[in-house]
Design a protein that fits this description.
- Helix content is about 30%, strand content about 25%.
- The chain is globular, with a radius of gyration of 20 Å.
- The chain has about 350 residues and is of the alpha/beta class.
- The strands form four sheets. Strands 3, 4, 5, 8, 9, 16 and 17 form a seven-stranded mixed sheet that branches.
- β10, α5 and β11 form a beta-alpha-beta unit.
């Protein structure tokens, strides 16, 4: 089988290997589609703080089971699946309290251990979730980023009747905003400086899509919500200056939720949090229930992912993917790798 490995930053190797064997508790998945994530770009540039080379990337995948171990229950060859890419110990305090997404020993496929950029991927059966027959493998590769969104909104609490601002209209910001709409928010506003992303967000049913190239966030919030302002500001942009605008714009007794993957420390004006009693929540991935909700919302077409895939590449073209993304950041939403038909 073909496997694509990154031995160091900016370098790709194509390896021909035997098809992996599996244990009694595992399934062998023939990979169909794998999405390219922002963290994959960080790894390519050698800027991801929490990984070490070499690594086989890929953590947003869909495929079909071709072999099932003796102990996997009802899963069988031919089942269409997506994969929850977390490896956790189950023994540390976060795991014991149900927060295995922040396990002290957490590993993520494609980041800390081999991922899905391969024709076949052996994985414990506990990590796979069935996707409906009507869901394409393209959509299946977007379940993982959609689960980031459902996990983020779960952490926010009940959104019924609330005013929500999402900063950044890339793929994750778009999905977070869509899930916020689906969760009963009174009004969801998404901001960006790239108009194409905002146009896609509008097509996806986001209530208001605002270009902030020439506007401050506080001005946008007052225009959109009036004196009630924003109950929750969700940062999916990952830009220092924008985060500081969020801190400045946060209403008393509101929340700032950080979904974006920051690459460096951010200095904040802490007294603004204290004097306004602003809560700040960090988001780290998802739980299985977030995958289940993502699949449900996508299957019912409540969350639209069809507009988010901007480009496809074959698995044998992965060395072209990263320069292409670097050179087209304003037009790309999500790149998907075709592993097999």
């Amino acid at each position: 089988m073909l496997q694509v490995k990154m031995p160091e930053a900016f370098k790709i190797e194509y390896l021909e290997l035997p098809v992996p064997e599996i244990g009694d508790d595992d399934v062998l998945v023939q990979m169909k589609r794998v999405g390219v994530c922002g963290s994959d770009i960080q790894i390519y540039h050698g800027r991801h703080k929490y990984m070490k080379f070499p690594v086989v990337q890929g953590h947003e995948g869909s495929g079909v089971i071709v072999k099932a171990g003796a102990n996997v229950g009802t899963l069988k060859a031919g089942d269409r699946v997506t994969i929850q890419p977390q490896v956790f110990c189950g023994e540390c305090a976060p795991c014991r309290s149900g927060h295995y997404n922040v396990c002290k020993n957490l590993k993520v496929y494609g980041v800390h251990t081999n991922g899905m950029f391969a024709e076949y991927f052996p994985v414990p059966a506990s990590k796979v979730l069935l996707i409906p027959e009507a869901m394409s493998f393209d959509e299946g590769s977007l379940v993982e980023p959609a689960a980031v969104a459902t996990g983020a909104i779960r952490r926010c609490g009940d959104l019924s009747g609330l005013n929500i601002v999402v900063l950044g209209a890339g793929a994750i910001g778009n999905l977070v905003a869509q899930v916020a709409v689906a969760s009963g928010a009174r009004k969801v506003v998404i901001t960006d400086i790239i108009q194409k992303r905002l146009d896609i967000a509008a097509e996806c049913g986001i209530h208001a899509c605002v270009n902030t190239r020439d506007k401050k966030l506080k001005e946008v919030i007052l225009e959109q919500f009036g004196d009630d302002e924003a109950d929750i500001i969700i940062d999916c942009a990952g830009v220092k200056a924008i985060f500081n605008e969020a801190v400045a714009a946060a209403r008393c007794s509101s929340k700032i939720v950080v979904v974006a993957n920051y690459k460096e420390p951010v200095e904040i004006e802490l007294p603004l949090f204290q004097r306004r009693e602003v809560d700040m929540l960090g988001i780290m991935m998802y739980l299985r229930e977030d995958f289940e909700r993502a699949i449900d919302l996508m299957a019912r077409k409540v969350v639209n992912t069809s507009l988010l895939i901007s480009d496809y590449f074959d698995i044998r073209q992965i060395d072209d993917v990263y320069p292409y993304i670097d050179n087209n950041t304003d037009t790309i939403m999500k790149v998907v790798i075709k592993i097999s038909e």
